[in-house]
Amino acid sequence: MTGTIVFDPLLPWLLIAVLAVIAAIGVGLALWRGLSGWALRALAALVLVGALAQPSYQVEDRAPLSDIVLMLVDTSASQTLAERAGVTEDAATTLETRLAGRPNTEVRRIEVGDGEADTGTLLMTALNAALAEEPRARIAGILLLSDGRLHDLERAPDLPAPMHLLLTGRESDWDRRLIVKNAPAFAILGEPVTLTLRIEDEGAAPGAETTTLDISVDGAEPQSFTVAIGEDLELPVTLPHGGLNVIQFTLPEAEGELTDRNNTALVQINGVRDRLRVLLVSGEPHAGGRTWRNLLKSDSSVDLVHFTILRPPEKQDGVPVTELSLIAFPTRELFLEKIEDFDLIIFDRYKRRGILPSIYLDNVRNYVEQGGAVLIAAGPDFASADSIYRSSLAEVLPAEPTARVLEEGYRPAVTDLGERHPVTAGLTGQDSWGRWMRQIEVMPNDNGDVVMSGIDDRPLLMLDRVGEGRVALLASDHAWLWNRGFEGGGPQLELLRRLAHWMMKEPELEEEALWAEPTGQTMRIIRRTLEDTVGAVTVTRPDGETEEVTLEEVSPGRFEALYEGPEIGLYRLSEGDEDAVIGLGPAAPREFEQTIASGAALEPVIDSMRGGTPRLEDGVPQLREVSLGRPAAGRGWIGLTARDAFETLNVTQTPMLPAWLVLLLASGLIIGAWLREGRS
């Protein structure tokens, strides 16, 4: 129990002070006039002023509360390096034992692991949460057992007591790490993109000036280069293909370095085309010609050259040649000299009129076999004697015309194979599509894929691969009816867009493909095929171990499975003739960006309460009791502040000047002063 004097004034303190001043003036006036009772008057005034202040003797019944020491133990990934985990556990056990022997002290041990989604070590977040659960007046100290590499320093709280960082690393530690300073997410095919890398040695490094850097693209055999340490490396890279390109950079593990987990970096860059160059050859103006032109011109990434035969040679309208406003079209330049510059050539209702010599069409055939793409949008011309099929192009076309032109209404339909082909898969709503009114009868060859059919299931859209190139044949010139909304229209723009992009070998439209879509440490494995079934995908992990993953069909021709990668790194996928590579996790795990133990980041926070940063390799420091505001760390010791907190169980107040006593004293003193002054 403890007793103190407290005041509970009946009037505001300012008013009591004014009354005290008036009483003092009265006493002073009595003294000046020589009244013998001035002393008794002063005592009476003092009693009355004291009564207004109402002093009481307060007795509290208190129960002492223990001091609380917060001990945060870092168990993040960087704490698994070298012998840190064992040193940390031994130190935590020793400190718990010593704190248990300290009178009136409790320990709150808090394990702090890795944050989710590669957020790193969140020591200050955990400290804030711990402080929110405990009365700050009871916190005697905060102990952090960590390597000092935290990633939420901005959340450091105001400390109620000294904080100490007990470093787990050794002064002799050193590490070499690979840093990707600049890596774009997209790059243009055929144009070099510059990556900025840097190799740094940290800690007590041996002082090497160069090292070997291995570079591998899509899991291929790596190439080795000798590079400087401590300097930015500008690396020009030209992507080999469209779609996802996975580039792996690897440093060999150096003798004595702390870890090789930060010696590898994965960079994933999507290769995109800068411009798609398309040559559109229209045999004559017709209603569907504008459809192709509008489709291609609507895409800002397409460079279109449109060659239209407006006045065929057989047309005799009497117009003198000198009055024609059209200039000569550079056919020789386009079909002989510059043909390889085009990604796609479209023949829209074109027939042989002698405008394009046979050598030009023969060059188009060579262009296809060497990797080009040709699309034939056939009209009645394709079934005529002047059909483009009656040229060297017949060797690469997927079907032969029968010379029949079918003039009747029909609804285009996606075939069973087309349901699985990426060009036509998912084109739903066939029952509501508008009709087309013309179809050219053709006989497909053995190699082409019929993905759409028309009248009586006759082939309507055929796709084929020839040599390194691709060819498509659309056996109708009435796709424009969908564009006009005839009988409800149809997915004309989507169909033609997919068709054009498949022919230009866009990766997302390959009919036989294997790829993965990563999300953190999980990947969605996707296999697309024209077959009814697929085998299990073989996954090769970064450590070389393999496992089989069974896929399930989610839609016609599309098989998927989710796979949880056990570690960060490069994964190889294979199934049949298809293979792919994918990187899981960040380019460099945040926990291994900096691995050398250091208290530099926490130094301003620790210094605010005069704490310390001893190394555990020098032994577990002793515990001392220090006053708040005094130095709390020294050689071989750290300090805790005794808080002497308590809980008040009961409070008793006894008035020191009860009313009856005030009345008795004041009246007695006033009467005494009056009697004394009356005798004199």
Structure summary:
20% of the residues lie in helices and 34% in strands. A hairpin with a 5-residue loop joins β27 (537-540) and β28. With 680 residues, it is an alpha/beta fold.
Low-confidence region ranges: none
The best one-word shape is elongated
Strand order, largest beta sheet = 16-15-17-18-24-23-22-20
Radius of gyration from CA coordinates: 45 Å
Average pLDDT taken over every residue: 87
Strand residues, percent: 25-35%
Number of helical elements: 12
Structural class: alpha/beta
Helix content: 10-25%
Largest sheet: 8 strands, mixed
Query: CA-to-CA gap between the ends?
Result: 52 Å
* Count of distinct strands: 36
Please provide a written account of the structure.
Helices cover 20% and strands 34% of the residues. It is an alpha/beta fold. Helix 1 packs antiparallel against helix 2 (38-53) and helix 2 packs antiparallel against helix 12 (659-679).
Helix-strand blueprint:
Layout: E1 2-7, H1 13-32, H2 38-53, E2 55-64, E3 67-74, H3 84-100, E4 105-112, H4 123-133, E5 139-146, E6 163-167, E7 174-182, E8 186-188, E9 193-203, E10 210-217, E11 223-228, E12 232-237, E13 243-250, E14 264-272, E15 276-282, H5 289-297, E16 302-308, H6 331-337, E17 344-348, H7 358-369, E18 373-377, E19 399-406, E20 413-414, H8 416-420, E21 439-444, E22 449-453, E23 459-466, E24 469-474, H9 480-483, H10 492-503, E25 513-519, E26 522-528, E27 537-540, E28 546-549, E29 552-555, E30 558-564, E31 569-575, E32 578-584, H11 603-607, E33 622-626, E34 633-634, E35 637-641, E36 646-655, H12 659-679
Parallel strand pairs: 3-4, 3-5, 5-6, 8-14, 15-16, 15-17, 17-18, 18-24, 33-35
Antiparallel strand pairs: 1-2, 2-36, 7-9, 9-12, 10-11, 10-13, 13-14, 19-21, 20-22, 22-23, 23-24, 25-26, 26-30, 27-28, 27-31, 29-30, 31-32, 34-35
Helix pairs in contact: 1-2, 2-12
